[in-house]
Specification:
Length: 134
């Protein structure tokens, strides 16, 4: 199974974390809500839509130094949601594409911070690209 399919399956099947009080993990909850699944985003609304996505990304970015493994998992879930969203918006302005570029760069930073195998990272990136453009 290719990288993008794995990410999509993981984001659909992995339950959100809950703390001891039964509350949903706020970052995972934001990741699920931010892409507004099923809602088409017109180009005029894309700027504010991307701004909301950037707020979620910033929360994940804050975890890179202290918990890179968690940041990686969150970025992968977020990337899966954004990949699915790509067909549900008009990105004539290019803002969403630029955001996706920054999100992938942040995922790479988190992987580097964790000491993950760079060859595996390249394999994953290539698999995502082949899936998306084939």
């Amino acid at each position: 199974m290719n990288g993008l399919a794995v990410l999509r399956r993981r984001s659909r099947t992995r339950p959100m974390r809950r703390d001891l009080g039964g509350r949903l993990d706020p970052i995972e909850h934001a990741i699920e809500l931010a892409p507004a699944p099923g809602t088409f985003i017109q180009d005029g609304a894309c700027f504010s839509f991307v701004s909301r996505l950037e707020q979620v990304s910033a929360k994940i970015r804050d975890l890179i130094a202290s918990n890179p493994a968690r940041a990686i998992a969150l970025y992968e879930a977020f990337l899966a949601g954004c990949a699915a969203k790509a067909d549900e918006l008009d990105d004539s302005s290019g803002g969403f594409g630029q955001f996706a570029h920054h999100l992938i760069c942040s995922w790479i930073e988190a992987r580097q911070a964790s000491g993950a195998d760079p060859n595996q990272m390249v394999d994953t990136l290539l698999a995502w690209m082949l899936q998306r453009f084939s």
